Amino acid sequence: MPIGALPKNSSVTLKPVNENTRYVSPQYEGGSGFLKKVENNSLYQVTEIKGTDDSSDSADLQALAKNSSLVVQQADLTTESATCSGSGSTTNCTLNTDVPAYKTGSFNLIEWFLGLFGLGSQKSTPPVSKGVEVNESVAMADAMTEKIEKTNKMLNPKNAENCDEKNFPTALQNDKTLNCGLKQALEALKKNKDKVKNDVFIFNDFSNGGVMGKMWILNADGSVASVLDKNPLWVSRGEGGFGNGKGSLKTPNGAIMTKAYNPPRGGNIRDGIELVGLEPENQDIHSRGVLLHGWDPYTPTQGCLGVAGTLDTRSRGRTTLGAAPPYLDQLKKGVLKDGGTMIYNFTPSKVKSCQGS
Length: 357
Description:
With 357 residues, this protein is an alpha+beta fold. The chain has three domains: 2-107, no CATH class; 108-123 and 136-156, no CATH class; 165-355, L,D-transpeptidase catalytic domain-like. It has eight helices and 21 strands.
């Protein structure tokens, strides 16, 4: 994934990528196939980044380099963009311009596909009917069909007129844990009414702790807000999990709020929506550079919230992600345009609050 750029004037240490590792790049905009092979000899792995830039973006890049998860293309290290010298298998470069950087990681095609149906990391056990074992492909098809039917029900909830739990989407109304989580969110909305300007808010269901969550866009009474043709959306969290701390790659817990959409901003991802914390434990998210931005929602971010939309990096211009409608682009022009919208991240730590009540 394109993650931004190594900043100008920084010094980086590089080495050849592992020759036994296969690198691929998703073909989001169609073309000859879904995955495009990237030749190993066209890449360098970034092992260290040094410089005067102490921003949250740089901290994230350094964390990725430390975890052997950051590469650059050799073609981007031209004589104009970098001054490099080699010693054995190590190359040291001083950057004269910003150089695009890419995040790497394992890619499990089957897991990704199952994730589309909310079945990721779940094993399929062929059911037994009348003493006959059904083959695994049939079992998987049945499971996917069941998941699709449940999703369709979530997308068409029956709303009551009164402001009570009957307004909640069916999926959140009937699940004890999610019901509690939504009540937490509504309480946070009430508590922060002096700061929050928008009655429409976002409830991110990360209750299972996975990379992918469900982003519900709701009205102040808990009913579904009619702002998009799809609700809920998939949303991804940071690869560090949930919490705070500079360079932690974690997505914040609890109540946060959007600032007015006013691109471009500085940093790796210029076209994101800045966020501020509304709880003591997430007060550092603005200084960390945590954003709501366009992303492949099946892939973890570096601590931000990622929704299907457009990604604009400092060095690469605009890169369209996926064939899916650019939902975040629509929200940036609508309900998120003026800021003051609360987002509630219902994460495992918030689930514990429900279990203790």
